[in-house]
Design a protein that fits this description.
The protein is of the alpha+beta class. It has 2 domains: 9-191, Jelly Rolls (Sandwich); 195-292, no CATH class. It is 23% helix and 31% strand. Strands 1, 2, 3, 4, 5, 6, 7, 8, 9, 10, 11 and 12 form a 12-stranded antiparallel β-sheet that branches. Strands 13-14 form a two-stranded antiparallel ribbon. A hairpin with a 5-residue loop joins β1 (9-15) and β2 (21-28). α2 (195-203) runs antiparallel to α3 (227-247) and α4 packs antiparallel against α5. It is elongated.
Length: 296
């Protein structure tokens, strides 16, 4: 059943460095959970994000959790995803005393990052990119040692520095010798790949995306007898992105149409791209569409 999830706590935090960046911390209460994950994701604002569900020991590309050995994966009734109706979903459990910190690293950067919390009874903190500690225990996020606490999403504006690390620290202001075990699940993030960066990488020599040199159809290289045809295809694709960039400030619908047209070149029988290139480009374009607010 669809439900309206009220967001009662939105905070903006500034991190000062060579470039000031604003991050918005959005808290959801435990009622944001929905066994229909797609419906829940819409309410949490993470629809279309890359999701780590902790249902196995392998993490999705682009995410690491440190320090290794400080957490473990097990079944729990207060999961945020992954249950099949006959058993509990799997979550990651982090146990430690006050000051212990679990760090989620996103080396490629993210424009938005979310975590589902359960079983936390202490007023623990979260920090972004090594910035100041921010208390989690504000409504609608609740403290509950035997239930879901809520979901937290951190957003960076497109012009701000990417989110590269999220640290969760066990905290208690009055009892430094205590500790607890907290559960995290349904970690979601949108890779931070700006349209301008993507265009510049495609126009470079050699062209690349996400550090990978562009690959087109099997047997066609970026040099040799097929170079002109190959570069023509890449140029036509890049021109779609340039058109979207030009339209972004005056005709958002038009920009979204150009991005959708470019995305069509990445899928199906007539795809121009293969392997890592197709995946990296499609992920980049879908992320840009989410930032622009395009229909998915």
């Amino acid at each position: 059943m669809n439900r309206l999830v009220q967001v009662a706590s939105i905070s903006t935090f500034w991190l000062l460095s060579s470039t000031a960046s604003a991050y918005e911390l959005i808290r959801f209460g435990p009622e944001a959970f929905d066994p229909d994950t797609a419906t829940m994701d819409i309410g949490l604002g993470v629809s279309g994000f890359i999701i780590e569900d902790f249902e196995d020991a392998d993490f999705v590309n682009g995410l690491t959790i440190n320090p290794m050995g400080s957490w473990f994966i097990h079944q729990n009734p207060y999961y945020w995803d992954g249950a099949d109706g006959s058993e509990d979903g799997f979550v990651a459990t982090f146990a430690g005393s006050v000051g212990a910190t679990l760090v989620f690293d996103i080396p490629g950067g993210a424009s938005s990052f979310g975590i589902g919390f359960s079983s936390a009874s202490l007023p623990n903190t979260i920090s972004i990119n090594g910035g100041p500690a921010i208390g989690l225990a504000n409504p609608p996020f609740v403290l509950d040692a035997i239930g879901r606490n809520g979901y937290v999403r951190v957003d960076a504006e497109p012009e701000d520095a990417a989110i590269t690390s999220i640290a969760v620290t066990i905290h208690h202001p009055d009892n430094p010798t205590t500790g607890e075990a907290i559960r995290v699940d349904h970690v979601a993030f949108a890779p931070s790949i700006g349209l301008g960066t993507l265009i510049n990488d495609l126009l470079a020599d050699p062209p690349s995306v996400n550090g990978h040199v562009i690959s087109l159809e099997p047997g066609i290289d970026m040099s040799g007898p097929n170079e002109n045809a190959n570069r023509g295809r890449l140029g036509a694709f890049t021109n779609r992105l340039i058109a979207a960039q030009d339209l972004a400030s005056t005709d958002l619908d038009g920009a979204c149409e150009e991005l959708a047209s470019a995305a069509k070149k990445l899928t199906g029988r007539n795809s121009w791209f293969i392997g890592d290139t197709a995946w990296d480009l499609l992920t980049a374009i879908q992320t840009i569409r989410l930032i622009f607010g395009c229909p998915v």
